[in-house]
Amino acid sequence: MGGLQEVLLVLFLQGLLGSSIGQEINNRFFPDSLKIGVASAAPQIEGGWNQGSKGVTIWDTFAMSHANLIIDRSTPEAACNSYNKWREDLAIIKGLNSQFYSLSIAWARILPTGYYNGTDSINERGVTYYKTILKALIKKGIEPMVTLYHWDLPDQLQDDFGGWLSPKAADLFAEYARLCYKLFGDEVKWWITINEPKQVCEAGYGGGGFAPGIVKPGVGNYICAKNVLLAHAKAYRIYDEEFRATNKGKVAMVIDTPWFEPGSQSPDDVAAAERARLFMYGLYGHPIYYGDWPEIVKDRVALRSYGEGLEVSRLPEFTPEEKKLIKGTSDYLTINYYATHMANATGEAPFDRRSFYDDMNIIE
Ligand SMILES: *[C@@H]1O[C@H](CO)[C@@H](O)[C@H](O)[C@H]1NC(C)=O
Ligand SMILES: *[C@@H]1O[C@H](CO)[C@@H](O)[C@H](O)[C@H]1NC(C)=O
């Protein structure tokens, strides 16, 4: 990790407005090396869901088919219309004095079906859209930070092989990543492979509250986690081997987690808080830094799996080659943090159901 010279602070505007305004002003200063910027995601702001030959994503279809799960029934169809109003958006970012802007590329704008099938499969209009924004940012002195995947899988890949439940998604993501490095490597020095894998996997393929709405608690989430880690690692290695020498950028996965404090200083509650951190951040961070799932996660999922009468753990294993591939694939440490939670120890849940949360085994 050692080489972290710059600290990046992304202020999510919602959080900023919700928590800082109206509180006491103090005279402490941020260090000059701290950069402050803003962030967005393609499916959250772009709209233009079928403009510019963009392909359909799992969030496009999910928002239509599961409108009841979305508080105000909003969809990515129009969103903030940034596809058409990006000039205004960039002016606002400049007006905030942001030093960088973290945005995401919609895979389906570059490769409408998700597959890279030679140069004919590239959607030039999508390429032009991002290229224009990236150049405009640099001209304004705002550094771009680009996420390759912010939850918007091309729908075709979900239909063809179950999306992140298949390692094929990792291979196709790696192809897409290589293409983006090639197309935008001159402008982009900060790359994020996957944003918030826990949301992709636990919400998308475990609980099913997010696209693609697959309900496979305690099973789909872990299969997805493995495939997302493979996708990240392959994309990292491609950058490392083919682009780093010329483009000199940095690559990481952005992992989200609450922080967990123990409800008391009793050893059981202290252990519960640590277990929660390992299930939330460690599920992704541990393989990336140490090459495998955290031991506690392995032990817990195995214990629950055997209790449920399974012969193997619901947590898939990594082969030695996969461990080697994944270990060390981070140029900078990332945390998306929203709140601190309290964690207490709790008794073992009945073995008649499968659940990520029973595996974690805490009271929040
Ligand atoms: C990509 O190419 C393969 C092989 O030619 C073909 O089978 C497949 O349908 C193509 N996929 C897309 C989405 O174009
Ligand atoms: C957690 O433990 C502390 C200390 O025993 C207690 O005060 C608190 O109410 C507990 N919280 C929950 C949700 O059990």
Task: Describe this protein's structure.
Belongs to the glycosyl hydrolase 1 family. There is one protein chain. It is built from 14 helices and nine strands. It is an alpha/beta fold and 364 residues long. The chain has two domains: 220 residues, Glycosidases (TIM Barrel); 99 residues, no CATH class. The strands form two sheets. Strands 1-2-3-4-5-6 form a six-stranded parallel sheet. Strands 7-8-9 form a three-stranded mixed sheet. Helix 1 links the parallel strand 1 and strand 2. The two termini are 31 Å apart. The N terminus is likely disordered.
Keywords for this entry:
binds 2-acetamido-2-deoxy-beta-D-glucopyranose; 3-stranded mixed β-sheet; 45% helix; TIM Barrel; 6-stranded parallel β-sheet; 364 residues; alpha/beta; 2 domains
Radius of gyration: 21 Å
Uncertain spans: 1-7, 11-19
Number of self-contained structural domains = 2
Q: What is the CATH H-level superfamily of the largest domain?
A: Glycosidases
Pfam families: Glyco_hydro_1
Keywords: Glycosidase, Hydrolase, Signal
Family: Belongs to the glycosyl hydrolase 1 family.
Signal peptide: 1-22
